[in-house]
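Q: My collaborator sent me two sequences in one message, no labels, and asked for predicted structures for both. Can we handle them in order? The first one she listed is below.
A: Yes, handling them in the order given. First sequence, followed by its structure tokens:
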Amino acid sequence: MLNNENQEIYNHINSVRVRSFRNHNDIELSPGKSSVLIVGNNGVGKTSILEALSIFSHGKGIRNAKFYDMIKNDKESFLVDISLSTSGDFSWCYRTSYSKKSRNRKILINDKEISANNARKNIPMLWIAPYTERIFLGSSSMRRNFLDRLVVIFDNEHSVRLNEYDKNLKQRTKLLKDGVNDLSWLEVLEDHLAKLSVAISSSRLETINRLTKYLNNSIKYFPRIDLSFSGSIETRLENEPALDIEETLVKDYFKSREVDAILGGSRIGCHKTDLIIKNLEKNLNAELCSSGEQKSLLISIVLATAIAFKEYSRKSPIILLDEIFTHLDLSRKSNLLEKLMEIKSQIWVTATEKESFFQNKENFWYHNLEGNKIKNA
């Protein structure tokens, strides 16, 4: 089969069926290649539909929740099916389920079980939701997790490295806490942690560099942004060889054993990174900006990521926007929509009412959600 390297790939979720998920018993949407606007009152389950889609791309999904909590209260498991097509009109049938009894999540593609890591390779996805908007005032871990989700779009193995890092760090913490005098195993763990820290930080730095040219050149009606790191391994990588940093980290892990045994965790490593987000229009860090300005900053970052990913991979990511148009003026709303259409992303939008600027958007599939039932809008 001939492969055209210049062919652009447009991902579309043709249909989704959600069963026993959150407050939904059984609900199905079939937009085909159209983008989607779901309109409904608060609490009817609009966000839950986006969450069901998002767990194919990132395990904890748009709400950063546990699978157990996604199951409908009176049910024992949930089931989500999606049909995904590309520009070549080839369809992939994905299914994911989670059971309270087994506490095990399964993912199948065309009836063959696969890993979550393999699933997200074919479903590049970005989103903005109320949870995401809290990254500016929340802990450094929220900003770090937000950044890592952007990195995974470009580097799917990033999530594998993060999981391996977390596993090694927990093993080291347990050894130190229990006073296990296994120096050789500690040395192996610390060597792995140093290598993983540098690899993870390198991917983060590379992603920020990919986004910089789009963030420094303002997207119309949205602020220019500077993204940087605070005293982190990523900062060091801009000036020091990776191998030198690995060697230093190994020594630092050794020196911090006594303190880490008392306090737990580790004082050093890629899990200490913090992302600094600055509004260049106001010359202010994001946490000092208004809530409306913070939303605009977040949109700028996600738009830049979508554009950079399209340029890098020639694939259009699917975009989920949960109540995104609140507090945005008409100019920003319209320009955001036009920009997303320009990169030919399929967009899934929720809103409490049908916005007037959607009226002439023929490539949108409009539906009302009432009492867990979808109706034509």
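Q: And the one she listed second?
A: Here it is, processed independently of the first:
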Amino acid sequence: MFDSVEAASQGLGAAGYLPSREIATSVFLADRLEKPLLVEGPAGVGKTELAIAFARASGRELIRLQCYEGLDEAKALYEWEYAKQLLYTQLLKDRIGAAVAGATTMAEAVDRISAEGNVFFSERFLSPRPVLQAIRSPRPSLLLVDEVDKADPELEAFLLEILSDWAVTVPELGTLRAAVVPRVVLTSNASRELSDALRRRCLHLHVGFPTQERELAVVRAKVPQASEALARQVVAAAARLRAMDLRKAPSIAETIDWARALLVLGAGALDARSLADTLDVVLKHQADAEHVRSRAAEVLG
């Protein structure tokens, strides 16, 4: 547990993430208050990386639930290993036969099998998914619910119960409660509006594209071989690209890739030729690349 906002900032920095004061404060409060942290912002601003750094900085095991359309409760919580149950049934068929021997009716045979308990619905055959893994973890963990906005609203309702009680009910086993309350980070690209009920249960943090100075610090840390001049040129050009009407603005990760690509090509500076050679590294749609090529001088400043 972090002792202060400064400790959270230092921990995230040591884990490879350079936070703003606002980000460090949100992580500190989420940790101390044991509240889920909902991180929203455009794609590529480091939301997932923040959760990974949070886990590392706090010494927690990272458990990730990647959301997508059609993700249901079973895939998020648990599933029964039906193939394993069937295999055990085949292996134990003689024992099952002995248990029902002498039964005069089907009902009596079923009663005898029921008396043995839920042999095939025990923890031996339970396959926990990320949510149940986080709840049952004997050591501190962090559950990352990544891109929750891509999941169906029904999954939100399921998550609300988990985030409120830190317990889940498995009908065959009863209620399973968290021995160690996990930390939770939910990320969203705002592709759809999340429910007010989910928002009420979370601390909220909006992460946008960083200032040029903060992005420059990130590039210096991730690409230390780049000269100061080249790093500044790349960061400034990325900021100009984000100001244009593009289908997808370059992310921080793409700025880093851009600086690395220029180094590999031996470019000491970002000029018209190196821009043309590496534009596809930073822009992922052909229409965006064609649009920018006609405005190369503007990008170079």
